[in-house]
Amino acid sequence: MTSRLPFVDLQAQRRRIGPRLDAALARVLAHGQFILGPEVKELETRLARFSGVKHCVTCANGTDALLLPLMAWGIGPGDAVLVPSFTFVASAEVVVLAGATPIFVDVARDSFNMTAESLALGVLAARESGLTPKVAMPVDLFGQPADFARLEPVSRKHGLRILSDAAQSYGGGQGNRRVGSLVAVTSTSFFPSKPLGAYGDGGAIFTDDDDLAEALKSIRMHGQGIDKYHNVRIGLNSRLDTLQAAVLIEKLAILEDEVAARDRIAGRYSQALADVCEVPQVAAGNASAWAQYTILVENRDGVAKVLDADGIPTAIYYPIPVHRQEGYRHFPIAKGGLPVSEELARLVLSLPMHPYLEPADQDRVIQAVRRAVGQQHPYRR
Ligand SMILES: Cc1ncc(COP(=O)(O)O)c(C=O)c1O
Question: What are the helix (H) ranges across the chain?
Answer without folding.
Answer: 10-31, 38-51, 62-72, 90-97, 116-128, 148-157, 210-219, 242-252, 255-273, 300-309, 339-347, 359-375
